[in-house]
Amino acid sequence: MKPTDILSSEHRVIEQVLDCLEHIIAEANANGRLDAASARDAISFFRTFADQCHHGKEETHLFPAMEAKGFPREGGPTGVMRHEHETGRGCIRAMDGAVDAAAHGDYAALQLFSQAGEGYIGLLRQHIEKEDHCLFSMANQALADEDQTELMAKFEKVEAEEMGRGTHEKFLAIAGALAEKYGVPQKAAAHAGHGMACCHH
Asked: What is the pLDDT of residues 3-39, one digit of tens each?
């Protein structure tokens, strides 16, 4: 298993929660108010699992490894991915700021949450497509076996030391509960049964 296989597996879980967010938005628009608990669960998942852990491994370790092999950061593929990560963070902040008012039926807040959420869904789906079908192939062609081994060790350190024990399971459980609530098919769990689980000690 390569480090990019870990990241690609995590993408499947992220896509599952994006599908759930789509249902949360549709339900909120139909009912005239947001389900705050589900919205907060989704936002928490995106902030911790998708951004802090998944995007964090990319920005801190994968992208620099690619840049060391000659991929330009400015104007290159890693620069584009970093910019999209930052755009996604803005969407998450906007959603988070609108939750309370939208849950009380405030129309403007509901619109803000919906627009930010729809923007995030579209951004992340395209972003994942680019990484799965382009960026990760570039990385695997550029990185030698010893580079891959070093990168895997760095991923393990992030998950064991920075994220902490039980974090992985917590957010897989959130993803599963949201999928069950909204009737979303569950994707393959990220690294189920494998020691290299994201955010797992």
From this structure: 999 999 999 999 999 999 999 999 999 999 999 999 9
CA distances from 76 to 70, 83, 139, 164 (A): 10, 11, 13, 32
What proportions of the chain, in percent to the nearest 5, are helix, strand and coil? 80, 0, 20
CA separation for the pair 28, 125 (Å, rounded)? 21
* The domain made up of 3-182 is a member of CATH 1.20.120.520: yes
Decide if 19 contacts 184 (C-beta within 8 A). Answer: yes
Task: Please report, in angstroms and rounded to a whole number, the separation of the first and last CA atoms in the chain.
Answer: 18
**SS3 call for 183:** coil
In order, the DSSP letters of 10-74 are HHHHHHHHHHHHHHHHHHHHHHTS--HHHHHHHHHHIIIIIIIIIIHHIIIIIHHHHHHTT--ST
Burial class (CB in 10 A: 0-12, 13-18, 19+), 117: buried
* Tokens standing for residue 109: 């807040």
pTM over the 0.70 mark: yes
CA distance 147 to 158: 17
Spell out the domain ranges in the chain. Answer: 3-182
- Rounded CA separation 41/43 (Å): 6
Residue 68 to residue 37: CA distance in whole angstroms:
43
